[in-house]
Amino acid sequence: MSLYRSLYLLKAVTLVFSLNAQELYFPPSHDAAAEWAVTTPEELSWQTDSIASLYEFLEAEQTDAFLVLKDGKIVLEQYFGTYTQDSIHYWASASKSLRAMLVGIAQEEGELDINDPTSDYLGEGWTSLDQEQEDSITVLSQLKMTSGLNEFLFGCTDPACLLYRAPVDTRWAYHNAPYALLRDVLETATGQTQNAFTNSRFEDRVGGSNGIWVPYDQYNTTYFSRARLMARYGLLIQNDGNWDGVPVIQDADYLNAMLSPSQDLNPSYGYLWWLNGQDSYISPDNANVIFPGPLAPDAPADVVLAAGRDGQFISISREEGLIMIRQGDSSSESLAPIDLHNEIWRRLNFIREVVSSTTENNGSATPSDLASGRAGLLAMKTYPNPARETIYFDSPVQGDFWISLYDQQGRLLMRERNKNQIARNGLAAGLYRLSVSNGSQRASSWVQFE
Description:
Blueprint: H1 3-21, H2 51-60, E1 63-70, E2 73-79, E3 89-90, H3 95-108, H4 119-122, H5 131-135, H6 139-144, H7 176-180, H8 182-190, H9 194-206, E4 212-215, E5 221-225, H10 227-238, E6 242-243, E7 246-247, H11 252-258, E8 274-275, E9 280-282, E10 290-292, E11 304-308, E12 312-317, E13 322-328, H12 338-352, H13 367-372, E14 381-383, E15 390-394, E16 402-406, E17 412-417, E18 421-423, E19 430-437, E20 442-449
Antiparallel strand pairs: 1-2, 1-13, 3-5, 4-5, 6-7, 8-11, 9-10, 11-12, 12-13, 14-15, 15-18, 16-17, 16-19, 19-20
Helix pairs in contact: 3-8
């Protein structure tokens, strides 16, 4: 086992103990409108005057539904346009992460083994490969996106479309067809339709309703549900597959593997789940480019993400006790618009960053900050502050980092790398938020130009 995987699993075990120390709230069955408990932003000391700006951004980005949960309780819930709490929306490729859990349940019940060749369930000739090549593809390689099949014919599952590109587990590529065929693997192994299996193993156990798999094209199906059922799935994953004492999936080894780097090629991918906080990632849109740094530098480093086209997100930070849900459309052509996901977290961070009454004024907050309760969650020394032209800072963030400057509405004004100063450059007098991040560490401070 590689060192990075050992450390990641150790972190996952630590998370289990920390989560058990928290008391998670679980809503009652059937999404009753008045029955899901709420924690107000004021109770969390969030900056409520910035919430309207977040909603304006989300509306401009064609969002239909948006929720944020803290320890299971709803903090933010907003619907846009004609969408309501009862509207059904597609999950797109966020469905992949749900199917990953269903495969784990089927294995737990002894219906399949992810190390089996896929041909054990689909029969010989499900690809255009020779028999030795075809038999090397396993259910596990489908979950990891390392089947070695050519992703050029992205969604087509006909044997003529499934062509050899590389040996199994030597190349990572975001490829819909091998994933889509997991439906056939599940149905063959369990003897049930995927809707029947999903309803009995997931939806009935978490008290949801109206979720359904629907054909997306002639090859693939995607899950449709209310935003609140998405949130239930997020809460289930946050609590390690257990719903308020009801086990949905009990195989801890499978869960840990699902939410850990599944291979060295793209450490930001588990079993059909995206993972933040890693050293690099391959985007869903180009398998030939490795990007340095984490998937979402402005999101908590431990975030695990179910993501789909048009910005369907189930984003979970177990360390922070937060779940972010987004359904909607998007102008992005990305198969999973991770830039939008990061931008939402950046704006959420702006809302969440508050100072406790015991925070010491070490130069990182102005007197007006302290009077209004606005200051950085992680303080760093800034000087001079206030300033007329240039503000310098000593960052506690290690290694390479990005510095970003935002106005009080959370709009990004400047972003540079590895600098220890901010120049005014024509900015109006007033308060601004300075953020320094390397992906796994983040410091923030309010600064003022006179």
